[in-house]
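Notes continue from the previous slide.

Worked example: a multi-chain complex. Inputs as given:
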Amino acid sequence: MATNGSVPTVTIRIQRFNPDVDKKPYLQEFQVKAPPGKTILDALHEIKEEQDGSVTFRRSCRHAICGSCAMNVNGKHMLVCDAPLREHLDRKGVLTLRPLAYLPIIKDLVVDRSSFWEQYQRVKPWLIPPENIPEKEFRMSPAEVAALRDAEHCIMCGACYSSCQVIALTKQYIGPHALLKAFLRVLDPRDSAPAARLADLDRGDGVYRCHTIFNCIDACPKGLNPTEAIETLRKLVIKRQAFEAARAERQRRLDQPIEVVGEAPALSGGE
Amino acid sequence: MRIFLMQRWSAVALLVFLTLHMVVVHYPPGHIDVSRVLERLDNPLWKAIDIAFLVAVLTHALTGAYMVITDVQRFNVYKRALAWVGVVAGVLLFIYGTQTILAF
Amino acid sequence: MAPSDAITHDVIVVGAGLAGTWAAMSAMEAGVQDVGVLSKLHPLRSHSGAAQGGIAAALNNVRPVAGTGPRGPLEQIPPDAEPIDSWELHMFDTIKGSDWLGDQDAIEIMVKDAIDIVYAYEHMGCVFSRTPDGRIAQRRFGGHSTPRANYAADWTGHVLLHTIHEQALKHGVKFYSEWFALDLIVEDRVCKGVVAMNIQTGEIVTMRAKAVMFGTGGYGRAWKITSNATANTGDGVAIAYNAGIPLMDMEFVQFHPTGLYRHGILMSEACRGEGGYLLNNAGERFMERYAPDKMELAPRDLVSRSEQREIDEGRGVEEDGQGIYLDLRHLGRDKIMERLPQVRDIALKFVGVDIIDGLCPIQPTAHYSMGGIPADADGQVIADAEGTPVIGLYAAGECACISVHGANRLGTNSLLDASVFGRRAGLAIAAFIKGGAALQPIEGDPTAPARQRIARLMSDPPGSKGESWAALARALKETMTANAGIFRDEVRLKTALADIHALQERFERARVMDRSKRFNTDVLGAIETENLLIFSEVIAVSALERTESRGAHARTDYPKRDDENWLKHTLAHKTPDGPALSYKGVTIDWEKYPPQERKY
Amino acid sequence: MYRSTGFIAFVLRRLTGVALVIYLLLHMWVIGGINGGAETFNERMEFLGKPFFRLLEIGLLAAVVYHGVDGIRLLIGHYFQVTEYRRGLFYAVIVVSGILVIAGGVPILLFALE
Ligand SMILES: Cc1cc2nc3c(=O)[nH]c(=O)nc-3n(C[C@H](O)[C@H](O)[C@H](O)COP(=O)(O)OP(=O)(O)OC[C@H]3O[C@@H](n4cnc5c(N)ncnc54)[C@H](O)[C@@H]3O)c2cc1C
Ligand code: HEM
Ligand code: SF4
Ligand code: F3S
Ligand code: FES
């Protein structure tokens, strides 16, 4: 980090590759100022707007909710929009940006996530509702909702997928993101076909292709835990008939109030 | 899925057998010769244990090898053929190994 | 003769946020076979997913604990207790929030449909937060007189978007992900299709359809401090305007009171809904002065103006005095971790403040566009003040102005608007298609103008050096913030307009550095900037004409609302000499909801 | 290439697993010498008794021990919720295997040097 007055200047190395003209990817260096509060995405914008307009990356929301901007920063996957520039420099004060690993590169930092989305669709991410739909909402307990938190919160950024060495070996593996989505549906008390879903995961490229590498947890910028979801699914796959029976039982009372166990917490506070 | 579970159960079995094997056969470390092995294998129980060990290790090794190969997308298309190769190899190795154990 | 490489669908939807996806899904559900949706982002990256706080509907699940006042704790309503909420109340709140500029027939449809649409989301698998007895949890939101914001922690928009996208996939909607709409093909008030670019290859194609629907979202990117995603450049609005469709009520732009200081990123209104305070540099809860009753929970326009006044009068915080503090410390760790985890994360990462024990600097941020493409309650786009339809063209969501929000939107009403009118547009389109709509013949090559634009951006300018589109965009944002922001007056608006004209002229010389075809975001950035310049001019002209203060449009030189002259919608038509304005009446039920003074 | 403790563990496990399979085949061949009579068996054992192979045996021991201990880690992972401690568990595997390998390796080494 070279210091210039009080605001340091840092080097950012960006992996460039346009398959139409380049034979193979190469790194290009840029210098940017690094005042506090500046994010890596801010730096990328600055480079694109002021230094080289052809530097290409995806982004949209800029606060870690749309999942566009996942990429590899000094070896770690992250969302660059909420990553403070100064916190991620390597020992030499350099930031090296590469596209998500193991995926075909469209251009520079933009990767082709087709296989990722195909697997997402493959798990039939939509709810298969029970036959009798109540007039009002299905009743779900706060605990049932809490169990789905991780799966529901996934922004489909692909960081987990592209950190998993199994994906490096085979794109036939369904992948942590799709398994997390499957988990969401299987565990949702409103879904009426968990056994069929689990049967579909019961294959060589389903839950059993995961080698418990844990990279998906390390890489997830939202702090989610696909591995645990996969382990749960593995157990349920075996017990799927019993699980479905229990689900059918639960669904008979889906329109009835949850019995309140213990003291119900207030919903929203005041002064 | 069968292969995954076979691999886990054989792993658990191996934990037991392998520990036993290491302790009984290889320690104290010394020159292993026929007589020592013959002595132990005189007992039919030991013969049974070794055959079980053989089954476990073959199961584990072959399912493991199968996993390693089918993890690679290019080989995944042959997974049926590979599974059969595994089964055949397993049977052959089992026969060979059992013959060995019984020969003592 | 249509170009031979044209892509054809029965229906083409531009935009895959809540509005577009609902439309596509419900058209398929109603029996249309062939619906294509194009989106410049992957559908799940649409800005709807960024919404945090909730979606409004009078479900009557939750009420304030009796006797604890307007900010006291909430509890679930026991099964046999009196309901406290109703669509009528929701309607009144919305009308009042709109400063009586909202069309009351459309508002009635929206608030009645609200209940159904929230249950529809729930039945489709949306994971809402719950009351102890298992109903959908609700929280307070500014301008709503009861707790009726149905939420999923603080990622409500995210779960709604994922849910509806899943349903669209289930129904077989065809998505064109990362396709950028460039032009709309409209002749003699008949819509025939769109021209779009496949971003990945850079190809420009004609897409023909019997009906086209726009759900392209908002245009907050014209301001420096904004809560909006980088994609919210108002493309749809600009494209429609270029195609001869007027734009309605563009002067009404909502500034949200709690944008993260300097970044503009939204700190959800749920922060205040859950009981957060706003403090000035003296540590005062200054809202006492401006809305003694509702305090921090007054509607957004009012709170933003109050903040801006504090800032302008020197009571702001941070080094440049442009900030205000949001104080959440008294909520306690548990509640913050449970209800506002995302908000906490954002504050930690961007300004390094942990809201559990620190004061978070915020400032007003450009947030929501009330104006847009004029449409009726079925999403049918209209061409003039008389309501003449543009056959085969529909719009819903933030890019449309069905005018349920009038001069100011209430929080949680826009996810609702996008969903309700997206669905209605889908159903109307289905009826239109099944009623025998046909593909319209197209003359010549409709892609030619877009090709020329791009060729020019990629050519070397004659003589002098080219302009950088990014610099032009920055200059536009500066002037819009300074001169067409929260407070406006004639002098400032004229300055803004002059600046915009100068920038438009400079844009003629704008060039891009990236000359390749594949995934050229440099070209897209330039086109988006051009779009910003197009609608910003409309905003400035409309705002200059409206000599009153209403809702989000606050003129310091005309501080009063003027119902006599201005209880009407602005329509801006494109002419060679710039926007020409005409006006359209507001639908008001004079018996039930006559205009009143708007006080909180 | 995404690096992490999980990745290192995975690669080591793979390599040791494959090495063990190769060894297993070799091992069975050696022991199978008995089918050709005690003579052949002792001959083949003799061949492996050379100090060079004794040293290789330490490698074999390390492989088996690491693979086995890591296997235990994975089995724990399957049946208990331990993802939070994933790094700690990996280091624990390294330490435990290290101890076992030293404990088992020293006698082999002493014997080989005899
Ligand atoms: C930070 C934030 C928080 C919010 N929170 C709430 C809340 O709590 N409650 C609430 O009710 N409202 C909230 N809103 C408002 C609400 O989210 C939006 O008004 C609503 O989601 C708009 O939905 P939409 O479908 O109209 O557009 P969007 O979701 O913005 O979708 C626009 C779509 O159009 C596509 N598109 C745009 N231009 C083009 C083009 N040229 N070519 C092709 N495709 C294009 C985009 O890719 C995208 O798919 C919030 C808004 C913001 C900014
Ligand atoms: C103590 C005994 C052992 C235990 C507990 C054990 C455990 C395991 C486990 C849990 C796996 C699965 C790894 C995964 O899915 O990623 C595995 C894989 C494997 N094991 Fe073992 N194992 C043992 C001994 C052996 C032996 C003796 C051999 C060789 C003959 C062997 C060969 C393999 C192979 C080839 C694999 C596949 C590699 C892989 O999938 O990464 N294992 N072992
Ligand atoms: S699990 Fe995490 S890393 Fe994987 S797609 Fe979802 S948010 Fe991204
Ligand atoms: S990294 Fe891959 S192997 Fe499994 S635990 Fe995660 S999916
Ligand atoms: S820009 Fe949306 S996640 Fe980073």
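Summary box: Residues 226-238 of chain A form the longest helix (13 residues). Confidence is low (pLDDT under 50) at residues 260-271 of chain A.
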